[in-house]
C-alpha cells in the first residue's frame, strides 16, 4: 500500500472534487485556501486573482487576530485595521504597546503579496470568478473554525456590503459576485491604500508614546483613583485624555523618512490602479453579478451607483494625486491668496508634527509656499452626485 501514500496525501491536500473556490473558502477558511493556491505550479488567471484576494483577506484577518489576542475588540481605534468591532476575548494577553505597530507590520506583508499577485495579471485577461460573499469568514480567534459573528457581513457591516441600498428593505443574504480582471485593479488599489496607511503608522511608530502614557497613568493611579474623563465618562484605561496624549506624542516625534516615501508611493499607485479599474470596467458589455458596475451595469449588492460615479471619483482622485505630487497645495487657514501647504514635501522631507505649531504657524512654515491651490469643487460635486453619501461610497470605490 505504501506506493499509494503520496497520492493519498496529494488528494487530501486538494479541495474536494467539483468543489468551487467559494465553497472551499467557506469550508477551510482564508489561510488554508491561500496556502493551497500559493502552491499551484501553473495557476490560471482566475486562480491568481483568488490568491491575491486571499492574501488581501489574510491581511484583514491577521489584524483581527492580533487585536483579539490583545483584547482590542472595540471601536476605539481611529485608523483602518483598528476600527471594526470584534467579539470580546474573555482572556486576552497582557497589552503590549508594540502590538499597535505590529498590526500594521503584519498587514503590510500580506498587502504587498496581494498587490504583487494582482498586478501581474494581464489587463487583457478574460477570467471570471464567482464568490458567494456569505462563504467569506474571518478566523478572529485563530481556532480554525467558523464561529458566530465571524462572517464578512458581521464584521465589515452592511454599510459596506449593500447598506447603501434601500434603507427600508429587509436584509437579505449576501449574494454571489463575479469578479473579473477589472476587479483585480480595484483590489490592488485597495491594497495600496491600506499599504500607504500602514507605512505611515509605522513611520510614526506609536510604541514609545503609548508606553510613556500608560506608565504615567499607572503612576497616577498609585496616588488614588484617576478621575473619570469628562468627555465619555467612566474610568476606562486608557481614557480620552490618555488617547489624546498618545496621538499628540506620536505625531511629535521624528518619523522614518523611508517609510513615508513608501507611503507616498502606495497612495500614488492607488490612483493609477483606480484609473486602470475604471478604464477596464468601462469597456465591459455584460451585466453578470457585478461588484462595482459601469454606467450600463447594476451592482449585484443592490447598491444604486449613479451614472457618472466613476468619472466624478476620478476627478477627486486626480486632485488627490496632484496634492501627493506637490502639483497642488492645500489651503492653510492663517493665510489667504495663492499660498498653501505642500503635502508632498511632508512625505519627502518629514519632520515631527507639533500641533500647537501647526495651529499658530511655526511648524507649517517649512511646507508653506505659493502655487495652485486644490479646491473643494470635485469633492462637493461627488457628494452631490451620491446624495450626501460620499463617505460610504469612498469605502466602496476606494
| Strand proportion | under 5%
Assembly form of the protein:
single chain
Secondary-structure-derived class: mainly alpha
User: Widest sheet: strand order?
Assistant: 3-4-5
Topology:
Elements: H1 5-13, H2 21-28, H3 30-38, H4 45-70, H5 98-119, E1 129-132, H6 152-156, E2 176-179, H7 181-203, H8 207-221, H9 240-251, H10 257-282, H11 309-325, E3 330-331, E4 339-341, H12 343-348, H13 355-360, E5 368-370, H14 377-385, H15 390-397
Antiparallel strand pairs: 1-2, 3-4, 4-5
Would you give an account of this structure?
With 398 residues, the protein is mainly alpha-helical. Helix content is 51%, strand content 4%. The chain contains 15 helices and five strands. A hairpin with a 7-residue loop joins strand 3 (330-331) and strand 4 (339-341). Mean pLDDT is 89; it is low at 1-14 and 163-171.
Please tag this protein with its features.
398 residues; mainly alpha
Give a summary of the structure in a few sentences.
This protein is mainly α. The protein is built from 15 helices and 5 strands. The chain has a domain at 19-191 and 267-303.
Amino acid at each position: 500500500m505504501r506506493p499509494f501514500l503520496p497520492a493519498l496525501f496529494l488528494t487530501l491536500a486538494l479541495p474536494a472534487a467539483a468543489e468551487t473556490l467559494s465553497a472551499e473558502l467557506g469550508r477551510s477558511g482564508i489561510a488554508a485556501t491561500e496556502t493551497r493556491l500559493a502552491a499551484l505550479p501553473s495557476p490560471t488567471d482566475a486562480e491568481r486573482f483568488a490568491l491575491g484576494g486571499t492574501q488581501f483577506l489574510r491581511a484583514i484577518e491577521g489584524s483581527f487576530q492580533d487585536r483579539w489576542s490583545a483584547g482590542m475588540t472595540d471601536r476605539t481605534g481611529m485608523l483602518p485595521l483598528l476600527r471594526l468591532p470584534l467579539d470580546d476575548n474573555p482572556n486576552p494577553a497582557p497589552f503590549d504597546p508594540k502590538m499597535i505597530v505590529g498590526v500594521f507590520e503584519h498587514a503590510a506583508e500580506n498587502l504587498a503579496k496581494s498587490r504583487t499577485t494582482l498586478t501581474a495579471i494581464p489587463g487583457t485577461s478574460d477570467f471570471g470568478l464567482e464568490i458567494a460573499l456569505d462563504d467569506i469568514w474571518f478566523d478572529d480567534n485563530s481556532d480554525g473554525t467558523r464561529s458566530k459573528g465571524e462572517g464578512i457581513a458581521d464584521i465589515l457591516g452592511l454599510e459596506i456590503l449593500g447598506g447603501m441600498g434601500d434603507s427600508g428593505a429587509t436584509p437579505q443574504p449576501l449574494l454571489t459576485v463575479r469578479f473579473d480582471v477589472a476587479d483585480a485593479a480595484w483590489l490592488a488599489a485597495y491594497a495600496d491604500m491600506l499599504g500607504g496607511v500602514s507605512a505611515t503608522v509605522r513611520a510614526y511608530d506609536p510604541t514609545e508614546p503609548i508606553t510613556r502614557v500608560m506608565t504615567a497613568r499607572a503612576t497616577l493611579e498609585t496616588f488614588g483613583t484617576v478621575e473619570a474623563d469628562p468627555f465619555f465618562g467612566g474610568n476606562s484605561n486608557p481614557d480620552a485624555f490618555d488617547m489624546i496624549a498618545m496621538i499628540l506624542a506620536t505625531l511629535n516625534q521624528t518619523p522614518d523618512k523611508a517609510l513615508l516615501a513608501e507611503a507616498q508611493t502606495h497612495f500614488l499607485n492607488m490612483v493609477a490602479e483606480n484609473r486602470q479599474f475604471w478604464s477596464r470596467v468601462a469597456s465591459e458589455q455584460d451585466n453578470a453579478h457585478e461588484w462595482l458596475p459601469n454606467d450600463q451595469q447594476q451592482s449585484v449588492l443592490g447598491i444604486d451607483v449613479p451614472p457618472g460615479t466613476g468619472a466624478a471619483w476620478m476627478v477627486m482622485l486626480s486632485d488627490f494625486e496632484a496634492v501627493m505630487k506637490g502639483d497642488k497645495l492645500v489651503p492653510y487657514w492663517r493665510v489667504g491668496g495663492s499660498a498653501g501647504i505642500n503635502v508632498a514635501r511632508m512625505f519627502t522631507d518629514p519632520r515631527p508634527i507639533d500641533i500647537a505649531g501647526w495651529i499658530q504657524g511655526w511648524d507649517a512654515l517649512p511646507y508653506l509656499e505659493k502655487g495652485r491651490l486644490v479646491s473643494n469643487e470635485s469633492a462637493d460635486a461627488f457628494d452631490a452626485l451620491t446624495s450626501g453619501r460620499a463617505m460610504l461610497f469612498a469605502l466602496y470605490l476606494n
